[in-house]
Write a structure and sequence with these properties.
Blueprint (H helix, E strand, L loop, with lengths): L2 H15 L6 H17 L6 H13 L3 H11 L3 H15 L5 H11 L2 H14 L2 H13 L9 H8 L5 H14 L6 H13 L5
Helix pairs in contact: 1-2, 1-3, 2-3, 3-4, 3-5, 5-6, 6-8, 8-9, 8-10, 9-11
Length: 198
């Protein structure tokens, strides 16, 4: 990445990070102008540049602008599906989620699917990420217990980790998942920390 690439990316981050609700759209326009400058100079159109723009719109529930920008970006199907799911979770659109989950799994490689789940753990409440895995299982998709590892690790930072660990244990038990040694190890460590047993 060149110094110019880094400068443009930082400008987008700063514009978005400094935005207040009353000037949100104006700040977004500044960030978008910065992105367009990156594009016009034939620089990378990588997600590291446009991801903050989409997240900005999702956080403020600017749905029309989100779809306008999504169409312009011409993202690959898996990435587009991911951001569509982020928006649906933000809006609480439970009707749309099952089809998006199914689509994401179809168009994503296992390693990329786990990457998306890690992002949900980093960006959202862990309960929503657990709901996502539940949706995947209800859609009869082939889900391995390895997708639970990042969720379990994120649980350690949550106030309601006692409840969340039990939810994950229930998922493993109810769906007959073959939990990895790492998954059980994380659960045991969390429960010992909580002075509890399953």
């Amino acid at each position: 990445m060149t110094k110019t690439d880094m400068m443009r990316r930082e400008l987008i981050k700063r514009s978005i990070g400094a935005a207040k609700d009353r000037v949100a759209l104006g700040m977004f326009n500044q960030a978008l102008n910065a992105y367009c400058a990156v594009e016009s100079m034939n620089m990378s159109k990588a997600e590291e540049f446009y991801g903050p723009l989409l997240k900005f719109l999702i956080d403020r529930e600017m749905i029309r602008e989100f779809y306008m920008l999504s169409e312009y970006l011409k993202m690959d199907e898996a990435t587009h599906c991911y951001y569509d799911m982020v928006l649906s979770l933000k809006l609480g659109d439970v009707v749309k989620l099952p089809s998006l989950v199914a689509k994401m799994v179809v168009v994503s490689k296992p390693s990329r699917l786990e990457m998306f789940i890690r992002r949900f753990c980093d960006s959202f409440e862990v309960p929503l990420t657990i709901d996502l895995v539940n949706f995947m299982l209800k859609c009869d998709l082939n889900v391995t217990s390895s997708v639970l590892d990042p969720i379990l690790k994120a649980c350690d930072k949550c106030n309601d980790r006692h409840y969340l660990v039990r939810c994950i244990f229930s998922i493993i038990k109810d769906h007959n998942l073959r939990a990895s040694t790492e998954s059980f190890g994380i659960m045991i460590r969390l429960l010992v920390k909580l002075d509890d047993i399953i």
